[in-house]
Design a protein that fits this description.
Blueprint lengths: L4 E4 L2 E4 L2 E9 L6 E8 L10 H18 L3 E10 L8
Antiparallel strand pairs: 1-2, 3-4, 3-5
Length: 88
């Protein structure tokens, strides 16, 4: 996982952003759900930037699908941690 920390008033805080995957079962494509992956972007980067989201979203999606081979990823999006959800 990539790390980004902010120094706020003498304290250090890790910044999280969320990649939301819309996934469906391979054997039953009508069964779908959302999966949230919390990631920490590289220092100075943000998943809100389309190119960064596309690159790191694909990497994280590939990791997830390797661990869940019975699912297919329909789409993904990047958001500040806990802000927006996809409509599956």
């Amino acid at each position: 996982m990539l790390a980004l920390t902010l120094n706020l008033c003498g304290g250090v805080r890790t910044v999280l952003e969320t990649i939301i995957l819309a996934v469906c079962l391979l054997t039953s494509p009508s069964i779908c759900k959302e999966v949230e992956l919390s990631v920490t972007p590289e220092q100075g980067a943000s998943l809100q930037l389309p190119l960064y989201c596309a690159r790191h979203g694909q990497i994280e999606a590939q990791k997830w699908i390797a661990e869940h081979p019975t699912w297919r990823i329909e789409k993904w999006s990047c958001h500040p941690h806990g802000k927006v959800r996809l409509k599956v």
